[in-house]
Amino acid sequence: MIPGMSETTEQVDGGTEQPAEEEWRAGHRERRIGAHQRSKRTLARAGWLGTLRERLALLEHAPDVHDLDERADIYGNGVVEALEEKVAALLGKEAAAFFPTGTMAQQIALRCWAGRTGNPTVALHPLAHPEVYERHAFSQVSGLRPVHIGGESRQPTADEVRDFDEPFGALMLELPLRDAGFVLPTWEELTEVVAAAHERDAVVHFDGARLWESTAHFGRPLDEIADLADSVYVSFYKSLDGYGGAALAGPKTLVEEARAWRHRYGGMVFQQFPTALAALVGLERELPRLPDYVRHARVVAAALREGFAAAGLPWTRVHPAEPHTFEFQVWLPYDARTVSEAAIRTAEETGTTLFGNAWEARFPGMAWTEVGIRASGLEWTADDVKAAVAEFVSRLTEEAGRESAADEIGR
Predict the structure, then answer these.
(1) Which residues pair with 328 in a beta bridge?
(2) Residue 122: CA atoms inside 13 Å, Cβ hemisphere, count?
(3) Is 289:378 a contact under the CB 8 Å cutoff?
(4) Which residues, at least 6 apart from 192, have a Cβ–Cβ distance to it below 8 Å?
């Protein structure tokens, strides 16, 4: 039995008993995070997985980014205003407003645009964050009507936008599109998609939670990328390793209306200086490093493909083959539980974490995970990656053999 897991079981096909799914996931998650934290080497050491003491240490850099002798913020002034001004300047927008969450920021932005366009319909990819992770918040909370545009593991095309069969007031583009593999369009494709939306008198809103990572792919500065959109949302923790929080940037009139709705939605938090300071630290320290992470992600992705091929696995996929950001997907033709156990055992037994994120099953017998590169990953050479792949595959083969033997006994 997996350590830390109870003996509660459920029946599965073939009559064998396995730990109940939720308990299995909880037990594996604790082992995975624990092994990741103890590892001496890892491709990405996510700050949010650290202890409270480690997270508080982030604010040791706060004196470098803001005057700590200034009075603390109250309902959005002071350091929060300073952060808003910095974000607006970075994105080349008239104004920006701080929000406690991206979910709130985007609902409000699109609600405000619906009032201006007179059309509450929002066109977005079916894998976009609001459709997958936000419990139908657009329709249930904000009175918006989402419709799906585009498909597969790619961004929408200009023809799909131009030929869509019903009117929409706003086109929301998630850049990069996480669940499709952190994919981005080319610069030419993006400009054509935006132009196609504007031809239909629709506004364009960028879900830019990870927009900070996109400059290397587009070969353009942030303000030039953001200039294509009528409004932009950015996150302070997904790329910048902050405590949380988000910002909405756009025309001053839109941002002022968004502030009013932020109050109505309960987003006027009394004091937010720890989150605001952490965001400023992230903009100062992490933002300049992101292009290096993206470039090295391409080295790691190529080494993973070569390592899996050398190990003789029947089929693997690194998607995109050349990552668009510093994050990408890896797909393997094995049961998710089998791959998860192999990944955790590799970290526990070698002190090296190759795959620190969860493995999921989107199809039977097919598992996938997300891989990201951070500062700790820059130390890895291509040979280091290939050696780690060999260690992982040896354990994966063992686990697959055990599963096969167990299936035979079950029959």
Answers:
(1) 371
(2) 32
(3) no
(4) 158
